[in-house]
Amino acid sequence: MTTSARAAGTASPNRLPTVYECSDCGQTTLERRCPECNLFTTKLGPGGNCPSCEELITLADLADNTNTNKPSYTENLTSSPAAPTPPR
Question: Is 17 exposed, middle or buried, given 0-12, 13-18 or 19+ CB atoms closer than 10 A?
Fold first, then answer.
């Protein structure tokens, strides 16, 4: 990767870009400085555009959104109702 590509904030073909958030205005961006406030931003993690709404989203957010309705394996085992015991 060339220095100019690294400075422009572009990711290599094998890596996702990094999503940043401004601590002042809350805007998410792929830039290290907020375009609105010109303050340094906080790194959120790898990500990109949301497939449904085109807003910037991290992989962690995307994973959280896809697994919200599905219980984990252990939750599934422990939350199943117990079979009623037959009367004696």
Answer: middle
pLDDT tens digits, one per residue of 13-29: 678 899 999 999 999 99
69: in domain = no
- Model pTM greater than 0.70? no
Rg (CA), the chain: 21
Residue at 77 is within a domain: no
Does residue 85 belong to any structural domain of this protein?
no
Domain count along the chain: 1
Pick from 66, 68, 41, 46: nearest CA to 56? 46
pLDDT tens digits for range 42-74: 999 999 888 788 889 898 887 776 655 555 555
